[in-house]
Amino acid sequence: MSENVVYLRKPTDTTSADGTAPTVLTVVPDAPPTRPVPLWVRSGRAVKSAVTHESTKATVRAVARHGAYTFNGGRIVARRTWDGKTGARYERMIRAAEAAGNLEAAEEWEERLQRFRAARHHRRMDLLHSPVEAAKGVAVGAGMSIGVLVGLGVVMAINNGDVADVITPLSATIDFIALLIRIVQIVWGPALTIGPFLALLALWAVGSKQQAAPQWALPANVRSGDGEPITPSIVVKALRDLGVPALRNAIKDMGDAGASMLGPIRIAGCGIEVDVTLPSGVSTNEVQQRRRKLAENLTRHEHEVFITIPEAARTVRLWVADSGALDEPIGPSPLVTDETMTADYTKGKAPWGQDLRGDAAALSLYQRHLLITGLSNQGKTVALRSLALWVALDRSVQFLMGDLKGVGDWNMFDGLASTLIQGPTDEHVIQVTEMVEGAVEEMNRRLQAPPGTTFPALIVLVDEAQVAFMCPVKDEDKRPYGGSKSNSRYFMAVRKIHNQGRAVNVLMWQGTQDPTDQNLPKLVREGAHTRASLALGTESQARMALGDKAVDGGAAPNMLRPGLDQGTLVVASSGIDIPKGQSSITVRTHYIDDDAAEAITDRAKALRDGVTTLHVINRGEDRDPLDDIATVVGDAPRVRTKDVLARLATLNADAYGDWSFTDLKRVLDDAGPDIAYKSDGVMVVARDRLHRALANRDDDGSTSTV
């Protein structure tokens, strides 16, 4: 038998006898068998997988939750029973009042406790006599019942002529009692069996209603706070865990009566409101400074809890929103939905939005300077524009407008504003500054008018005013246009309007962003009667925007969420209804887009005779009065001479600020007869006759200047 020889070593002679290379076979040993995983390891993995499985967790939570409901429901029922039978409740309230330093309330609860003990003693003394009286009552009742039944039987016997009917009612009553006894005998056994289960079910229902289970065992939606109602116990626990030692110790001394600190929990818009009277030794700012922790203790986000300081001493007012309610948009503005709406500058209020209660928030603009600030792209221009849109529906109101952003946010006021300057450059700042200085001259003219003279409202509106304050350009006299010094032209013009403008209805409205001492000087921001702020970055900016009083009273625009709370303003003003004892109010403003704004300004333009909007400021050059009269008359068929004079003064106060009716009549009479005439008893200027006089004058080549 032949054998195949396998060489395990490479031969040194690489050639065979016939000269060819030999075939070498290499033997590769098999891999060693894998060691089996020990049983205890496999068992541990299986147990870990089973224990950490979501179904197991849900089952454990459900068992623990329902078990805790039943056990804690028994504790709640036992506590209620004990409170009802003893004076424990009154003693807790006394301790709570003493811990809060309210001695009057402690004395009142002590008096109630004495009355309760006296009534309980009286009831116990009555029990000594009740067995005898009960026995007498039973005997008398039984005798009367038997007598009635026998009497009824006698009547039946007489009626039927059968003596046996005398006992028929008594026999029927005995049979009925026997039936009841048999029913009780049948039901008693199952009742004894089912009764404990019904009792446990009742205890479970009490515990379930109170959510009396550990937090980890509660359902996911309750653990996350979705839909969780705010109850007195939740508020007290949130305050207890706030990290204020004096507050925590006082609540512990109160026992379960910590809710005595709380006023009534009231539904307030999309949330609730409650006043908390703090115990002695706890200041209101200690609670204000822990707003985030308080919100998390209430299972809310920080922006869903607002803390204000009412008039009552040692009291904070908490407003807690429903989860996610502040992320829902509010409805459209009445300016958009009601096409018949008009405005009354003196007596009306602008529909601006809604407060946190969900009530309409309206702002009075009458003789109030306005300042709106906030971070960039938070809705400042839209909030400011919505006020201008409302007041534009009052045909008597005049506008001078400067937009130092210049992206067309105010284009719709072309044809409404006497002046509209738009652009971000230094030249635009110069134009806006001269516009504001022209308003100062108009203010001075009005101030020098005879006493009792009334003037229409002139609103000088500058959006992105920080560009003007930061402008480094100087005029030919080396006076800076920007800055906050006594020779700064824009700053001083605004200050002059702030000082005296409201007396003659010349008002300054400004919108700025990211306020600092450089781009919003102290004297300017404090000159505004209505101050509103969107989201800001720091508390110091909030103080710049709203003032120390508002911030110390709970105003916190720095707590608003940039990008998420767009259009939400914190307002400090006497022109808006603020809850008593508070210094500010939070308003969620209506959003009015550009198309809706165009429609509103079209309605405002229809109320006017026509306004020619200037886009540059005239710098005192020679003027043609007839051309200027034609400019201010615009497209209206006729305009009252009184309005023509007012528009000329707005157009150029230097040239026409001192004009009277005599000056106007002289120019018109020189141009042609009957340009000014009476219509319905009022002197008016006719557009067609004025244009005809201009055409005739141009043909003659004559002109006049002023």
From TrEMBL:
Annotated residues for binding of ATP: 374-381
The protein's name in its UniProt record: Plasmid protein
Organism: Streptomyces graminofaciens
Keywords: ATP-binding, Membrane, Nucleotide-binding, Transmembrane, Transmembrane helix
Annotated TM spans: 134-159, 179-206
PROSITE patterns documented for this protein: FTSK (PS50901)
Listed InterPro entries: FtsK_dom (IPR002543), P-loop_NTPase (IPR027417)
Pfam family of the protein (one): FtsK_SpoIIIE
Domain FtsK: 353-543
